[in-house]
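Look over this record before class:
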Amino acid sequence: MLKQSLQLKLGQSLTMTPQLQQAIRLLQMPTLELQAHLAEVLETNVMLEQEEPEAAEAVDFELGAHFTAAAPPTEEAGFTEPVEVEVVDQPWADRAGTGSDSGRAEDDEDRPRDLADERGESLREHLLGQLTLLGLSESDLEVAAALVDAIDDDGYLTETFAEVALDLAHHGPFGAALHDEEEIERVLLLVQKLDPVGIGARDLIECLQLQLAALAPATQGLGLARRIVDHHLKLLAHRDLGPLRRALEVEGLQGEEAAADDETLVAAVALVRACHPKPGSLISALRPEYIVPDAMVRRTARGWSVELNGRTLPRLRVNNEYAGLIGQGAGGGGHALLRSQLQEARWLLKSLEIRHDTLLKVARAIVERQSEFLAQGEEHMKPMILKDIAAAIGMHESTVSRVTSGKYLHTPRGVFELRYFFSSQVEGDNGAGTSSTAIRAKIRRLITDESAGEPLSDGTLAELLSAQGIPVARRTVAKYREAIGIASSAERKRDGSR
């Protein structure tokens, strides 16, 4: 027989209130996504308003310009001592203040314009638009359109004439009999005259030759440049022009190019290197995405200063005029809606304040641990994991993970995602660990300084690193080398590249 009874039990549990859910959601939002969210909230909540530029503190609008003017770090002897990381005082009183849209609009004229087509045309649309202006016959226009369809995003023809003819036979109104390979080749010569120069080539050599053919015949070194492209393109990978000069002398060139004097050779090499190996990439429907840093670090007399970017988000505040209406009148459904929106507005501002403070704490903790990287470069990056930062700021690792994902830090050495500063470590002979980022940087430096005729093998690189107190296996060196896009020693020796 079952018996009912009452029992007392102590325990802890976390209740995910709407406010907490909102704070977590805003914490992990990248800047662009948060901007879109705040714009949507501004349209739906009358209790929120955006501050006018003149009402905002001038210091926040000057952060970007003031920071970018900072001089790059120098390796001062005294800077090896522990440095102080300060946080610029940025009160978040009744607003989400980190910038304004109107403030960004004032700088539109000073921004560098991207080189992509402003109309958002694809390469195919760009080429087809030019074909309509050539006055081609209906048959030639059909062949030209088929050739354009066979050109990839880099600008190269990816199908053979036989494959193009087969496509026309299946889809064209005139049939395969009217489009033999000779006719397709003739039309291809017309397509190759379109913009950008070099389009429709079947390989790199033809692409470069098309671009050289567009130059004036009297251009210095043009003839030699064509010969280099036809026969000695691989020798351009050498930093030293000696192998290329010797190869040209062996051929016994006649006329102006016979001597292959330094001036002519240098001019010819410059012409080839000025050509674009992927002309199709110059026309893109995709506009470049600019990274807007969430926080900035600059050097001061006392060490490093960390501050949030004052231009990433609109500055919000509660609309006091509407808030004052709630206390007037007898109430009703309208006032209930206003009270609800006022509460939501206050929650949002509080959540944004938490986001800003947490981001600032994380950025400061990262800078404290990676000050040597900021002063001296990648080889001095320290190993660091999420747990280290979580312990330093007294928060959970999941919170640190949310903050560092999709957030960027502007430093004198460039703009980096916060996650970039985290890396695993390799235990050294002296018990100290070296970060994987530092090891990759050391490998890159060793390969850069190697002799072109005797490139360092992975085994040799492992021995050199071990001599520096970083014991790594050959396969680990190979993994790191491949991760930074450097070819093997055999390939570097063959191609003369690094």
